[in-house]
Amino acid sequence: MRLSNIVMAAGLVAAAIGFGSAQAADISGAGATFPYPIYAKWADTYKKETGIGLNYQSIGSGGGIKQIKAKTVTFGASDAPLKPEELEKAGLVQFPTVIGGVVPIINLPGIKPGDITLDGQTLADIFQGKITTWNDEAIKKLNPNVDLPATAIAVVHRSDGSGTSFVFTTYLSQVSKAWADGVGAASAVEWPVGLGAKGNEGVAAGVGQTKGAIGYVEYAYAAQNGMTFTNLINRDGQKVAPESANFAAAAANVDWANTPGYYVILTNEPGATSWPITAATFILVYKKPDDAAAVAEALKFFSWAYETGDQAAADLHYIPLPDNVVASIKETWAKEILGADGKPVFAGK
Amino acid sequence: MVDAAMTGLRSTGVDSAKLKRMNSFRVGDATFRGLTFGAALLVLLLLGGVIISLIHGSIPAFSAFGLDFLTTQSWNPVTEKFGALAPIYGTIVTSIIALVVAVPVGIGIAIFLTELCPPVLKRPIGVAIELLAGIPSIIYGIWGLFVFAPFFQTEIQPVLIDIFGNIPGLSSVFAGPPYGIGVLTAGFILAIMVLPFITSITRDVFDTVPAVLKEATYGLGCTTGEVVTKVVLPYSRVGVIGGIMLGLGRALGETMAVTFVIGNAHKISASIMAPGTTISASIANEFTEAVGDLYTSSLIALGLILFVITFIVLACARLMLMRMNAKAGN
What we know:
Chain A: Part of the ABC transporter complex PstSACB involved in phosphate import. By secondary structure, chain A is an alpha/beta fold. Helices cover 42% and strands 17% of the residues of chain A. The interface between A and B is medium-sized, with 32 and 31 residues.
């Protein structure tokens, strides 16, 4: 951390030299890789409209949390929300930006996207090595009309710590007691079986190259690359496909406004059409920022993104937040993010 | 030297202008000496700084787990139980595989280039090998993942499993399923990466063998094989070992290419086709998302262990060379 302080000091000096007082500095943020494409797209449009750029480093959620705690950036970004007590301790405010989904992907010859349906228990058993072949009774029962081969199942998981893994293992912990007790939920876990591959592209390559493989990737990645995803049985016992509407359904059933710190895990939500492995991604800023003007600029950017960025998000297969959630977030900003004078740092719309 | 010249000048009583000029030379000398000494000192300071920060960073891990850290293979970020055995094992095994493949091939290429190669081919092959050394490791990683691993999976691994499947002992070392990626694949990729180091250094030291020695041996009626084993290799063994150690050093620390193809499982498997992990791959994979002091500290402790392993390897190499020299002296 001491090293990062030095780096920060160097960065500040460079920034001080680089920007005259007349020109507004770019907004600086760091963290999750999952929302990076949409932040980059928003930033591009925002720069064209306002002249203010966004310098977002997608170094991973853990890195984002470390950077904001070291105060090297104006905002941190994380896929896994911090618990309310942890936010309190660090003096941070947390709010969601967009929603995305995680989908299981498979590689079986002749099987097309959506041909196979799995449920949570089966998925947990596969990732624990309890179900080892594709023609296992549990899978057959869920897919009576599919001719399943006796191919061995090769499990592929993320090797790098990842918000995607956090969401996926959280879901497995909710649906399988054995998983919750034996493995648990985190951005990196001790995987009982399988190959570790780096990044979404690594998992996609691992699954694509190995017959009988199963893995999981972010929905945006699967959609853009036409991967063979599976359907899932959700908490209401309904078969759902990974589609934008179903991710939105999962988010719609949550009481965001009354959840401290927006600590909302969207996995295994009720609702007939809710996709069970859905997640929001979060932004962290200080409640009483040292540089109130910089935080105000950042909030202005996110406010702009909530107002005008929905189409861009949808184009990239992210799900914009429902309007009532956005209204509640803005109330939180006005109430909690205060400058030295005790007034909200960002009051505008 | 300037000093000596100046005492000479004073005694003979030369004009002060010359003396002044000599004096400025002396200041220049001192400054130069100071600068170079400072540069040398900087290396020591950097090394010391790295060691101290590694030790400082790994204190929480070692105080939490003690020496169990070195002997357990459980790596569980959820319960914060960390053991370094699997990455240590993976680091050593992949490096051994790399050397087993690369040393014979590298020395073979060097022998061919220095003893048997037609002069027309000498340059192109030499340049090709040096180019191999210049390819960034991420390229090896991506090539390994998308080209080599699928080929390995469909063409090589099934054959290996078939050949060794019925031999007791070896059958578990080469046990399937053929994933394409795993410890063996990582070892092969490393072999390709260290090959240029071993080859180019070996070739250079082979070139230093005096032609008259070789010619004399040929004159006695020796074959090329005898010349190489009886004259060239004994004469240049220090350089050859040096080249191998340089290759080993690279293999131990290589990160990106290994991360792509090793399978990244914190497990020790009997089969070298199974996924494993290395120290540097674990750090690269997990450091950015390591939340919590103990997790971060365990990763830094891994770095310290790699540092120690590298140090031991270098020390062993020195010792080996000293012994060989002593033996040759007798």
